[in-house]
Design a protein that fits this description.
By secondary structure, the chain is α/β, with parallel strands linked by helices. It has helices spanning 2-25, 45-61, 70-83, 183-187, 189-211, 217-234; strands at 28-31, 35-36, 66-68, 104-119, 124-126, 129-131, 134-148, 154-168. Helix content is 42%, strand content 26%. The chain is globular.
Length: 239
């Protein structure tokens, strides 16, 4: 009986060790704040933080990464910047490339944002509410950079695109003061496109960093990238 109990405890301990080892093998990923290179009227520092948190949540949901909190990354960057000044003793300076144990940092930039709105006719407006009056189409592109924290090298880049369509109702057309955390905002074409783009970003990172550049999933992304490049070149008329 005693041997059985000891054996059972040993199995439980072994399972815990193996589970921890599997967790430790997952890439440790930190998501930096999003930046914006477009003239989107809804952009603000609040949205930049919300997008960062949204991507971190989507990455965590893939179960493929150990995701570090953005606040921890910000604190690590501050410590590293401070360590490069003469105000910190050389004996206690923080070493670059050791940000909270992250293997990679993800930098994301909104590089394109377009809205197309057209009248559909037959619109009815009662006070601030408009029903069936306009049709929205939103396109967004995000440039991803994956940075190796040990070397500072950019080990992968990719442009991720998303598009959404829908009928705009009420204040959904007014994107100034736009907050991604609002339920109404997420129902608009803009909110849908942004959320889809962030999900695509998390799926691409899982493919690239976990399954590898030679994985079968990369064929889909390479094909999408080829189409994106062809569309971009087709929009330019060089004589």
């Amino acid at each position: 009986m005693r041997k059985t109990v000891v054996f059972g405890l040993a199995l439980v301990l072994l399972a815990a060790v193996l589970a921890q080892a599997a967790q430790d093998e997952k890439p440790r990923l930190g998501v930096l704040r999003f930046t914006n290179n477009t003239s989107a009227g809804w952009w603000s520092s609040t949205v930049a933080n919300e997008l960062s948190d949204m991507l971190a949540s989507e990455l965590a949901s893939t179960k493929a990464f150990q995701v570090l909190e953005r606040k921890e990354i910000d604190a690590a960057i501050y410590e590293q910047d401070l360590s490069q000044t003469d105000r910190i003793s050389s004996a206690t300076k923080v070493k670059l490339g050791k940000m909270k144990g992250a293997n990679y940092l993800v930098a994301a930039t909104v590089s394109a944002y377009e809205e197309q709105t057209r009248e559909t006719g037959g619109g009815v407006r009662v006070g601030p509410v408009s029903l069936g009056g306009k049709r929205d189409k939103t396109y967004i592109a995000v440039d991803l950079k994956i940075i190796d924290t040990e070397t500072g090298e950019i080990v992968d880049t990719r442009t991720i695109e998303a598009e959404a369509k829908g009928t705009a109702i009420g204040a959904g057309l007014n994107l100034r003061g736009f907050s991604l955390s609002g339920a109404d905002a997420q129902k608009t074409p803009a909110g849908k496109a942004i959320r889809a783009c962030v999900i695509y970003c998390s799926e691409y990172l899982a493919c690239s960093l976990v399954q590898g550049q030679d994985a079968s999933c990369m064929k889909k992304w390479d094909k999408m990238e080829e189409k994106r490049r062809e569309r971009t070149k087709g929009a330019i008329d060089i004589k």
